[in-house]
Amino acid sequence: MATSNRLSMPTAGRLAGAITFGLWGWYLAGVGAPFFVEGRPPPSFLPGAVITGILIGWVYVGRRTGEGYVPAVGHGLSAGFAFSFVTLFIMAFSLMMANAFRRRYDGPMEAIVDIFNLMVAESVRFIDVNLISSIFVGAVLCAWITEYFSQKYP
Fold this sequence. Notes:
By secondary structure, this protein is an all-alpha fold. The chain has one domain. The chain contains six helices and no strands. α3 (45-61) packs antiparallel against α4. The radius of gyration is 17 Å and the shape is elongated.
């Protein structure tokens, strides 16, 4: 089965998406840090947010560029949801692993199901108007910047 070169080849849109969404992830890690216990996020929070932003910018938004600025709004909002979900999943997975090493689960299925319970429990901590608006407004702005570079340097 032949694959399209468009999916694998680097473009200006993918590069711009990776850079802008990586910077956006760095910004969100700083904005989200005070919501942790004693204002101290885990050491892997900042690199995880940056890497998640880079991957979402390159893989998700970067390959959908060239459709115009109105569809870029939808791509940015989808990227905001994806970033939130992936970040919460990574945090919940690391908590589940810590609980598993403490032998708090009876089996692997209980541990896997608890990931989603931990995601819900952790998401309550981050309910804040400024943080949520930073996620979605920032994602749309990053998608517009990505779209601009995609159209300017095809």
